[in-house]
Amino acid sequence: MRPWPIARSHRGPIARSVVSGTLVLGLLAAGLAGCGGEPAASDDSRQQLRLYGADGNMKNAIGEPVGKAQPGLISGMKGTTPLTPLTDDFKARLRGIDPALKDYPYAGESYDAIVIMALATQLARTTRPEIVKQYVDGVTTGGKVCADVAACLTLARAGQDLQYQGITVKTGFKDSGEPSTTSYGTLHFSADSKINSQLTEFVGAGSADAATHSEGPAPVAVSVPVTGAPLVIGGLTAITGTNSGSNPPKRAGAKLALAELNAAGGVLGKPIKFLDGDDGTDPVKAKATLAAEKGQGATMFFGPSGSGVAKELIPVAAAEHVILFAPSATSAALSSINDDGYFFRAAPSDELQARALADVIMRDGLRKLSILYRKDTYGEGLAQGVKDELMKAGLQDAGVQLEAYDVPKDAASLQIPDQVHRIHEFAPEGVLVVGLTESAYAILDLAAGGVDPRVSPA
After folding, report:
1. 88-348: CATH topology
2. pTM
3. Rounded to whole angstroms, what are the CA distances from 304 to 221, 235, 243, 312, 369?
4. Which residues lie closer than 8 Å to 328 by C-beta, 6 or more apart?
5. pLDDT at 2 over 50
6. Edge to edge, what strands does the sheet with 343-345 contain?
7. What are the tens digits of pLDDT across the range 402-445?
8. Does the domain spanning 45-82+351-448 belong to CATH 3.40.50?
């Protein structure tokens, strides 16, 4: 939570019927086990090893190197990711930006992040971050509902209060600057090491009642001259580093939003300028990129991609008085950092994903699970969150093993022999891997060390 609520204007009633307050994975029926090439139980009734993943690795970009090295290894692996059903039209527009696009996670969140920043700027009639930040949450609540970029811009230019309902942002932001509701997808890898979209299921999470009720400034009158145009947004996504494998859909979503906003006339009378920058999945590189782009006039930043980098950049943004709007930084810990109101995210907190993952695991009947995770804000938070949720669901503490690994400089350099040995000795019924691009090599190392779902238990 932010230490001080940001003042906002009253923006009318908030819809409360979109999603229930409790995560319900009713779509995951017991018959799901065995779909998508999952291994069946052995003859001695002991459960064969299952693989699970989370948003950082449930992507085709992870499946490619694994499938090439060990065909069929991740057949049946499943996991969760923040994911809203995307229309064919939106996917086609994304492919118009990036014809080689293979995955869509966080594309919608990225699109919405750019649009919300643009609309907040137009309503404030200035690019000054200390003013614009007061309008961001309000863009998502109350006012006249709009979903089309051109229609929303028309309202904002007229100084009319609006409620943007985007690709993934459907209800108001919380006071912590993040969605009050979201949608999760349960994804499955098939025998070809690719996500089988036909098995993807969606479920809502969160509560619209958690959306902000705080008051704040009304749209600035159209008679007031605009200041600071053009709006310059700095890019802070993982073009390189261990989060780079998940970057293409984020970049495509952001660039699509920029193209459509500028085609509709831009913001404050001028096209939005975007500086394409790399956070490198590394706080040092990200801070250098932020400083360089700020020097080129950026007052708002799209990114960073990951929670580990976001944790280090939030205090910098607060000190520098610039807005950070992350499309995919999900650690629950980020909600409690003192950001002075300058940090927002279009992705939900991992508090919700931990419940979703625990539900998937418990529905499979596991009583003994190893969690292998990267030692950073994202990995530590989600791993502990899943364990806590499993404990609440009745699993014994002795039934959950936590194994961390240091974040590698590059994904292929990951070496975890000690962790693999301990997991093998623990003899789990399932392994949850919480990581980014390096997850592919973690899974290969597990198999090389005897933790292989293709091999029946001894």
Report:
1. Rossmann fold (3.40.50)
2. 0.82
3. 33, 8, 10, 10, 31
4. 55, 82, 105, 106, 109, 110, 246, 250, 305, 306, 345, 347
5. no
6. 273-275, 232-235, 300-302, 323-326, 343-345
7. 999 999 989 999 999 999 999 999 999 999 999 999 999 999 99
8. yes
